[in-house]
Amino acid sequence: MVFSLFSGRYFPDPGKPLMNVSGIWASVSIVMVLMLTPLTKLKPLRFISRYRRFVGLTACLYAFLHLFIYLVLFAGLSWSWISSDLVEKPYIYAGVLALLILLVLAVTSTKKMMKRLGRNWKPVHRFVYFAALAVIAHLWWQVKSDITIAMWFSVFLVPLLVLRLDQFSFLKKPSFKSKKSLR
Ligand code: HEM
């Protein structure tokens, strides 16, 4: 992105292509992070679980770059411009939600935070699925005529989300033990 910018490839209007590329890389990283869990279930691929944090942080980094480009190149750091843009483009709220979730996950991804959160760490990190849903909303909401990007990311993200539905305890069927205790 930096090379393309300085080689003049994106001129005269670098904002739009840079927004596009940063957003696409952030979304690709989310797809990759969601893919890692099912892949690590395969014995020969177990080792890739060590890259989960790296890929998650990459998603967060690109999402922040996307925000930075929006604030500087799109909005020119004008808060009045941003507030009128927020009225025009409500899909930005879905993007902000995804970004905030990614930020919380990045901050709580250290070993120290893992220890501090204990049993709560996993439920907190399941919020990555809500981030993926927010990204899908962000992409479809902004579609005008070209559905290519929204469609391709949905093709990857939706099956990965469906595959992990069992991770949400409120969707889980009561286990044998809990059925017994209900009686
Ligand atoms: C503060 C958070 C965010 C803001 C303000 C924001 C804003 C925007 C805006 C204004 C566009 C349209 C750009 C244009 O007109 O060409 C856009 C596109 C895009 N955003 Fe975001 N976004 C945010 C978060 C995210 C996140 C977290 C992701 C993915 C993980 C993402 C992925 C994308 C993608 C892939 C596009 C291109 C869509 C297309 O061209 O069809 N955005 N975003």
From TrEMBL:
Q: Which PANTHER family match?
A: PROTEIN-METHIONINE-SULFOXIDE REDUCTASE HEME-BINDING SUBUNIT MSRQ
Keywords, ordered alphabetically: Heme, Iron, Membrane, Metal-binding, Transmembrane, Transmembrane helix, Transport
Question: Mind telling me what this protein is named?
Answer: Ferric reductase-like transmembrane domain-containing protein
Q: This protein's superkingdom?
A: Bacteria
Annotated membrane-spanning segments are: 20-42, 54-79, 91-107, 127-143, 149-171
Q: Which residues form the Ferric oxidoreductase domain?
A: 23-135
The molecular function GO annotations come to:
FMN binding; heme binding; oxidoreductase activity, acting on diphenols and related substances as donors
Q: Which organism is it from?
A: Marinomonas transparens
